[in-house]
Structures are given as C-alpha cells and as structure tokens.
C-alpha cells in the first residue's frame, strides 16, 4: 500500500497508513474527519460522521 501511494505521488503519514491498512484488510468502514488523506487509498471504505 505504501509503495503504491508513493508511486502515485500521494503518500500518507505512517500512522494513517497503519489505520488504513488495518481497515482495508478487515473490510471495515473507516470513520474519520480526515477523508482527504484516506481517499488516496484504493479499496478503502470511508465515512465522515461530522458532515
């Protein structure tokens, strides 16, 4: 995942990378107010409960 994001020129922080990897591997919906960062990850289901 990290290599793919770096290859695309869209890296994310290491902590967000761990969160995204875990959520995607378990097919969880990741709830965050920081969608802009996580939208870079293919196959990650996201929700923002603030907006």
From TrEMBL:
Q: What name does this protein carry?
A: tRNA(fMet)-specific endonuclease VapC
Give the taxonomic lineage as stored in the record: Bacteria, Pseudomonadati, Pseudomonadota, Betaproteobacteria, Nitrosomonadales
Q: Which UniProt keywords apply?
A: Endonuclease, Hydrolase, Magnesium, Metal-binding, Nuclease, Toxin-antitoxin system
Q: Which interval of the chain is the signal sequence? A: none
Q: Which GO terms describe its molecular function?
A: endonuclease activity; hydrolase activity; metal ion binding
Question: Which family would the database say this protein is a member of?
Answer: Belongs to the PINc/VapC protein family.
PANTHER family named in the record: RIBONUCLEASE VAPC2
Q: Which residues form the PIN domain?
A: 5-43
Which cofactors does it use? Answer: Mg(2+)
InterPro entries attached to this UniProt entry: PIN-like_dom_sf, PIN_dom, Type_II_TA_system_RNase
